[in-house]
Design a protein that fits this description.
The chain is an alpha+beta fold. Helices cover about 15% and strands about 55% of the residues. The protein has a 38-stranded mixed beta sheet that branches. The longest helix is centred in the C-terminal third of the chain and has 26 residues.
Length: about 800
């Protein structure tokens, strides 16, 4: 398109110069019409077919003027390039006698230009000047008298009622300038300012879009003799346009006033000492129903590359809406001190201040930014003042997750310092406010293929429960009325994000002075995560929970077909009851214990990791309380039945206090088996074994109770039969985790049958011995007793 305009200008100048030659003949009182054939021949030498349709007329006073009544220009293949109805040209006589051409006036009316690019990408103007170029290859003798530079001055220029079409059949682009007018006075190429005005309707089309626009430009312009330095003063542009494509429609109108300086002698050097955009409106309506309107947009300032920093100010009104939400209206303002270097390679924005208001909530962003394009390098320090993010999101129609704390995200702000280049981004300083929390840190991200990330964050205090969904409200009877889902179906098959984990290259450290998570109070949290080449390691996760120290190390290897995980950790004097109650609302166990564990698992989902869990857990506690289960009650219930006494189940405590408990739990394929359990309840010694099925969320444990004869008086029930002393009395505890109750632990009444069998055997033994003594006596009797004892394995 640029080359087409260039050749169009060349064509117009050629016509003007040809007409000037005709005008020059008036100085010798010759009828210019006799030169029509010569003029057309000169045009042919430029590769043009010129038809002068009407007569050439002239006048002498007050200046020499020639009028061409209609003409057309075509290329050598007879494709019309341009035509006009009337051309008027006047030149000053005296300069003409000194071989200077001073054009005092040019007037063109109803110019029609048709520029076409064919399917092969060849423009119909490309043959202009080819004939003269061929002749120019022949050397000619220099005319010393003709070496004087041509001085061109036009007292008045007028182009009216004109029409220019550019049609690119290769790309499908179509540009049309209609109602085109151009007016200027005292046009000189000697750095003298002259007024110029331009007005036109513009149409642009291609396969995907259409644009219609109206523009009107008035200004004072200064141009040098080499036509490579332009100065625009008091430029005034009025522009309106409408644009349409498959995504939507847009319209805009603006009034622009500017001063500009453009020098293209050696590259492009420009400046805008004055740039004033006022009363601008923009609107866009998308086919999906969304729309944006910008109104009362004003821009004031200057842009001077290589000069001192200049102030810029922008303000306006913004309205946004779509089919699913009410419109959002906001005011927007931006101001800064802007500087750009002469090569347009470095930019600096100081005292940047952006302010807008959404839903009655103000957003203030301030800071400094500077950047270079080549090589890419940038630095910024920005501050976002505290604002209500939740209110802004609601106004924007953004649906945030429901949070337990209604005031969450009511105060969010940050100050950030960053720098970077095409290889790395570094956040050297971060200080943020999140409601009542203060967050500090730094980070860096490498932009090469490894994308290594380093992160260090320090938080003074935070309650993450505030930002999680509130717990569901359940009726008090829900526990007994609605059975909970159990087994693998209760665990959603949440897949591990293996692809993401395999690509991670992260070294992150998080420190939190005070943390509340899942209702648990933590202090001095330290979390260090290193992820690289498919291996993610946590070493360590440490801190205090209820002032009890804990430490956890873990590793997840996602490289194998089935991801592998290992965890090991410990805690001392852990208040188990508080942890279970606050974290999982479990009241059945309380007390303080030391805990150590070493676990491994494998799988590609949460459920499979749980299913393949292996390892061991050891607990050592001086005192534990088992709620909703009374082991002494179960023991006394068995005693009453054995002694054929009435048992009163009332007035028993709804708990069991366990003393000096040592437990070792071995986990295999998600099932935890109690390998060792030693404890005591009142004077009962406890030992046991059993299993805890994590897949079915249930447990089944047999606790063997033993009462020594010396301790029987400390029991709540009286023991009348020595067979119940110094022997294991089994009590079976089994239930689903959410069904633990008073009947979860019951005595195993089969022990009564065992005692009855023992009692019967004792009577048989006693009778047999009496009979042997009676019948045999002496040594023979003792020998017979030994044989009898061996036979019954007593």
């Amino acid at each position: 398109m640029g080359r087409a305009i260039k050749y169009l200008i060349i064509t117009l100048v050629s016509v003007v110069l040809i007409a000037v030659l005709a005008a020059a003949s008036l100085a010798f009182w010759i009828d210019p019409n006799i030169f029509k054939d010569d003029i057309e021949k000169l045009a042919a030498e430029q590769g043009l077919i010129l038809h002068l349709d009407g007569d050439l007329s002239w006048q002498v006073f007050p200046n020499i003027q020639i009028v061409i009544n209609g003409a057309s220009l075509a290329t050598s293949d007879k494709v019309e390039l341009m035509s006009f109805d009337t051309a008027q040209l006047s030149v000053a006589l005296m300069p003409l006698l000194n071989k200077d051409i001073v054009v005092q006036g040019i007037g063109l009316d109803s110019v029609k230009a048709n520029l076409v690019v064919d399917e092969q990408g060849v423009g119909n103007w490309t043959k202009i000047g080819k004939a003269s170029d061929d002749k120019a290859q022949k050397p000619e003798a220099k005319d010393e008298g003709s070496s004087k530079a041509l001085e061109l001055a036009i007292a008045k220029l007028s182009l009216s009622n004109s029409h220019v079409i550019y049609n690119d059949k290769q790309t499908g682009q179509y540009v049309e300038l209609s109602a085109l007018s151009l007016n200027g006075e005292n046009i000189q190429l000697n750095n003298t300012a002259f007024p110029l005005s331009l007005e036109s309707d513009v149409k642009f089309e291609d396969e995907t879009q259409t644009l219609n626009a109206k523009l009107k430009l008035t200004s004072t312009i200064t141009v040098n003799q080499d036509i490579n330095h332009f100065i625009i003063k008091d430029g005034d542009l009025a522009l309106s346009l409408d644009h349409k494509n498959e995504l939507g429609t847009a319209s805009a109108s603006t009034e622009l006033r500017l001063d500009a300086d453009v020098n293209i002698a050696d590259g492009v050097v420009w400046s805008l000492p004055t740039l004033d955009i006022s009363d601008t409106s923009l609107s866009y309506a998308a086919t999906d129903g969304s729309n944006i309107e910008i109104s009362a947009l004003n821009f004031k300032g200057s842009v001077i590359p290589g000069g001192e920093a200049s102030e810029l100010a922008i303000n306006g009104k913004l309205r946004y809406g779509n089919a699913s939400q009410k419109p959002i209206e906001t005011d927007l303002s931006l101001s800064t001190l802007l500087s750009i270097d002469a090569k347009l390679n470095a930019i600096k924005a100081q005292k940047l201040a952006l302010r807008t208001s959404i839903g009655g909530e103000t957003i203030d962003l301030s800071g400094d930014i500077k950047a270079t394009i080549s090589p890419l390098d940038y630095q910024a320090k920005l501050t976002l003042a505290n604002t209500n993010v939740k209110k802004i999101a609601n106004s924007l129609g953004i649906e945030l997750p429901v949070m337990a704390e209604p005031s969450a995200l009511n105060k969010v702000g940050t100050t950030i310092s960053l720098n970077g280049n095409d290889k790395r981004i570094v956040i050297s300083e971060l200080q943020a406010t999140l409601d009542e929390s203060t967050i500090k840190g730094n980070a860096s991200v490498d932009l090469d293929k490894n994308q290594a990330m380093k992160l260090a964050v320090n938080i003074d205090k935070i309650n993450v429960d505030n930002y999680l969904p509130p717990p569901p409200e359940e009726p008090k009877t829900a526990k007994t009325e609605t059975p909970a889902a159990s087994g693998p179906a209760a665990d959603t098959e949440i897949p591990l994000p293996r692809e993401m984990l395999n690509k991670l290259n992260v070294d992150a450290k998080l420190q939190i002075a005070e943390l509340t998570a899942n209702n648990l109070p933590f202090k001095n949290i330290l979390l260090h995560v290193i992820a690289k080449d498919g291996v993610t390691a946590v070493s360590p996760l440490s801190g205090l929970v209820y002032d009890s120290p804990f430490k956890l190390d873990a590793q997840l290897d996602t490289r194998p077909t089935a991801a592998r995980m290992l965890m090991r950790g410990n805690s001392t004097q852990l208040p188990i009851g508080k942890v279970l109650k606050d974290a999982a609302a479990i009241d059945e166990l309380s007390g303080i214990s030391d805990v150590t564990f070493n676990l491994t698992t494998s799988g590609n989902s949460v459920a499979s990791l749980k299913k393949h869990l292996d390892g061991n857990i050891e607990l050592s506690a001086q005192k534990l309380r088992l709620s909703n289960m009374n082991i002494e009650k179960a023991f006394c219930q068995l005693v009453a039945k054995f002694q054929q006494e009435t048992f009163d189940p009332t007035n028993w405590p709804l708990y069991s206090d366990l003393n000096d408990t040592v437990t070792k739990i071995v986990i295999k394929d998600g099932i935890a088996r109690i390998e060792k359990l030693n404890s005591g309840v009142t004077k009962l010694a406890l030992s046991g074994n059993g299993k805890i099925d994590l897949n079915e969320d249930s447990f089944d444990v047999v606790i063997n109770t033993r009462l020594a004869q010396a301790d029987q008086n400390a029991m709540a029930c009286k023991i009348n039969n020595d067979k119940l002393l110094n022997r294991d009395i089994p009590i079976r505890c089994r239930a689903a985790f959410d069904k633990v109750g008073a009947t979860s632990c019951l005595p195993d009444f089969r022990v009564i049958e065992d005692i009855a069998k023992e009692k019967a055997k004792d009577k048989i033994d006693e009778k047999a011995k009496e009979l042997i003594d009676k019948k045999m006596g002496g040594e023979k009797g003792e020998a017979a007793k030994q044989i009898f004892n061996q036979f019954f394995k007593k």
